[in-house]
Write a sequence for this structure.
């Protein structure tokens, strides 16, 4: 049965139950949260990176549900009735926007969600893509503060001026995310506003310390060696922050399959340029990267994390752990290339 039909049926059944419990009063058809002062605030994050940020900022006073979990692919995701139920029961929804969660408007509508939406990327300097090169145009605008940031068109089109949604790959942007999340939680739960603000600032302090450490590490690498190949164009913000050139095999979405001409171009660039390493991503098939490595002899650098965290017991199981892991892998390979 199609997802939208399932959602409509689920909502109709729930409305009937609420009406029955209230003796037929239509007033109870609106969402009823029934939260006691001691109960944590029910919140939903669209994917694992935002889920971890929510837990860091919200602490014990939020109950977080993450729609797309660890090692999950937001680009290929299809929502289920379980996701709609979680969203319907939530007070707050935290999303990335920037056209990342293309399935979200349909899920919000189908679920009947009536809570507060928090756009985590609101106010970040947006990286724009060049249509001809599929690469960074270095055109920076503030992220919109409305739902236009997550419309229904696909990522693969590379329209001129298309926004790169992977803004969390910059720790400076991560600090903006944390403050936006704290403000959103405070608006939904004013009684705990100071608690959320304090936790956000503590979290930001850890981000700032890691950012300084990473900058120091990359500053010791000659700029001409800071060139690597990745599966798709998801590390542009990281590259801008630390002076790394990432050459993507595919486009923004890891659904995009590169053509033979694309592969030939990447192989040529790899041979002609001083590329230090080739990296795979935790959600992508490594076959293409391995093929390029075989044809060029460039070092395989291991796994980077782009759109999703790893399991909780792994180094990249948190946002800060993910950024630290990515930087560590890159630094190791860039240093090896200089030996």
């Amino acid at each position: 049965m199609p997802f939208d039909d399932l959602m409509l049926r689920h909502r109709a059944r729930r409305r009937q139950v609420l009406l029955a419990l209230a003796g037929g009063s239509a007033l109870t058809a609106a969402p009823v949260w029934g939260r006691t002062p001691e109960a944590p605030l029910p919140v939903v994050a669209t994917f694992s990176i935002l889920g971890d940020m929510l837990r860091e900022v919200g602490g014990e006073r939020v109950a977080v549900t993450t729609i797309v979990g660890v090692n999950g692919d937001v680009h290929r995701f299809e929502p289920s009735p379980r996701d709609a139920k979680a969203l319907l029961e939530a007070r707050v929804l935290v999303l990335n926007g920037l056209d990342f969660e293309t399935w979200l408007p349909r899920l919000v509508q189908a679920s009947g969600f009536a809570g507060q939406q928090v756009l985590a990327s609101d106010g970040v300097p947006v990286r724009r893509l060049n249509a001809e090169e599929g690469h960074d145009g270095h055109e920076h605008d503030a992220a919109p503060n409305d739902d236009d940031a997550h419309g229904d068109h696909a990522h693969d089109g590379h329209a001129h001026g298309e926004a790169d949604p992977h803004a969390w790959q910059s720790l400076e942007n991560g600090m903006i995310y944390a403050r936006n999340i704290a403000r959103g939680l405070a608006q939904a739960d004013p009684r705990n506003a100071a608690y959320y603000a304090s936790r956000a600032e503590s979290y930001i302090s850890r981000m700032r310390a890691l950012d300084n450490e990473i900058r120091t590490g990359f500053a010791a690498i000659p700029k001409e060696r800071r060139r690597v190949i990745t599966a798709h164009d998801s590390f542009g913000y990281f590259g801008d922050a630390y002076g790394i050139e990432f050459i993507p095999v595919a486009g923004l979405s890891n659904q995009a399959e590169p053509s033979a001409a694309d592969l030939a171009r990447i192989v040529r660039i790899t041979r002609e340029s001083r590329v230090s390493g080739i990296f795979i991503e935790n959600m992508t098939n490594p076959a293409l990267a391995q093929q390029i490595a075989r044809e060029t002899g460039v070092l395989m650098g291991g796994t980077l994390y782009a759109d999703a965290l790893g399991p909780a017991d792994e180094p990249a199981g948190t946002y800060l752990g993910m950024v630290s892991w990515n930087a560590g892998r890159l630094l190791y390979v860039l240093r090896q290339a200089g030996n």
